[in-house]
Design a protein that fits this description.
Blueprint lengths: L6 H12 L11 H8 L2 E5 L3 H12 L3 E5 L3 H10 L15 E4 L2 H5 L4 E4 L6 H8 L8 E4 L12 H8 L8 E5 L4 H5 L4 E7 L2 H11 L4 E6 L2 H23 L4 H21 L4 H4 L2 H12 L4 H10 L4 H5 L7 H16 L4 H11 L4 H9 L17
Parallel strand pairs: 1-2, 1-4, 2-3, 4-5, 5-6, 7-8
Antiparallel strand pairs: 6-7
Helix pairs in contact: 6-7, 10-11, 10-13, 10-14, 10-16, 16-17, 17-18
């Protein structure tokens, strides 16, 4: 039988579900600001994903300002029209300008897309949000959960917004390698946003024949799917690094989706959301695709490398390493059974050998795949 939440966990689940309120309009008006600015977009973060999104928005005819943390990256984007550190060989065409001041990037923008690593989002947002135009919509393209607070990225943005300012905040998630988006290869993602009017406008502004955007009012589910799958991509990589075979990988991915659904449901998300692009779709891509940073971390762990060696000198971020701590902390707080996430955490943070983690998972007490109560049968 799956681990059941205690009374405290049940109260926290109910509170989380009670906070899921659908709003149908934003105040102030995002659509009006979009017209006023003539379609100005800011992308905060010039890694591979942020650069790819900035390029995509520019291809749709929008005026885009991209914040790069380092002067040399901004200069190269503006002069050579390339980001050699993160998207080498991709020409950055269109009305796209890079700057080194994040506040300058967002000033006058009607739509702000956040693409910085999850562990720095709060600090960057705190310095930028006071300069945000009233009525601007924000979309998090960062996939993560804040350590300690267990807040999603949209919740961080809402908590750091100036007092009394109401604006649409959403999240973009789904199976979307940055290099393929930059190459204009077909991609489908989900925009989670409770403000349906703003969501539909953003959908129309950023969708293209090779970049299909679906909308969802289940913002929490969209964000959790994108964050949780990174942890299980590491698990899948470990499985392959240990050469356990395709049967084992498929089994782990299936059980991973089950764990993702349990935790997301405990936090008020709809289970169907986790079966969509931002959950199952992103899990499949990140756990099996050769471009996946999280999968590569798992592969190398399974092959015997230390985590310190794997992470040293990396410019890009494998979000699953940080999120493993947050996810396991949330599972413990809510009393949700997540054995795969537990073993990933122990491998990453407690020095457990990947092989022993797999052995412990495979030799647990036998049980039903789906509890009889869920199927409507009480034993």
């Amino acid at each position: 039988m799956p681990a059941r939440a205690g009374d405290k966990g049940g109260r926290e689940r109910a509170a989380a579900k009670g906070n899921h309120i659908t709003q149908t309009s934003s105040a102030p008006d995002f659509a009006g600001l979009w017209k006023l600015t003539g379609g100005a977009v800011a992308v905060v973060g010039a890694g591979a994903w942020g650069t790819a999104l900035a390029l995509h928005a520019a291809r749709q005819g929008h005026r885009v300002t991209l914040w790069a943390r380092r002067d040399e990256i901004a200069d190269r984007i503006n002069t050579a029209r390339e980001n050699p550190d993160f998207l080498p060989g991709v020409r950055l065409d269109g009305d796209l300008t890079a700057v080194c001041d994040p506040g300058r990037a967002v000033e006058g923008a009607a739509l702000v897309i956040w693409a910085v690593p999850s562990h720095v989002l709060r600090a960057v947002a705190r310095g930028v949000l006071p300069r945000l135009a009233e009525g601007a919509a924000q979309v998090s393209a960062t996939k993560g959960i804040e350590d300690g607070t267990f807040l999603t990225m949209s919740e961080i943005l809402e908590s750091e917004s100036p007092p009394g300012r109401a604006a649409a905040v959403g999240a973009l998630s789904g199976p979307s390698f940055a290099k393929e988006v930059a190459r204009n290869l077909p991609t489908a993602v989900t925009l989670g946003m409770r403000d349906t009017a703003a969501a539909r406008l953003i959908q129309s502004l950023l969708s293209a024949p090779t970049f299909r955007i679906y909308t969802s009012e289940d913002l929490r589910g969209v964000e959790l799917g994108g964050a949780l799958k990174n942890v299980y991509a590491i698990a899948a990589g470990i499985c392959d690094g240990l050469e356990l075979g395709l049967n084992a990988r498929a089994a782990f991915l299936t059980r991973a989706l089950s764990e993702m659904n349990r935790l997301a449901g405990a936090l008020g998300a709809h289970p169907l959301t986790l079966s969509g692009l931002s959950g199952m779709g992103d899990l499949i891509l990140t756990a099996t695709g050769e471009l996946s940073r999280n999968r590569q971390v798992g592969l190398r762990l399974g092959a015997g490398e230390s985590l310190e060696s794997i992470l040293s000198g990396r410019r890009d971020v494998a979000e699953g390493v940080r999120n493993a701590s947050s996810v396991w902390g949330m599972a413990q707080k809510l009393g949700v059974g997540m054995p795969v996430a537990r073993e990933v955490y122990r491998v990453l943070y407690e020095g457990k050998s990947p092989r022993q983690g797999m052995v412990d998972l495979l030799t647990r007490r036998l049980k039903d795949e789906i509890h009889p109560e869920v199927l409507g049968r009480v034993p």
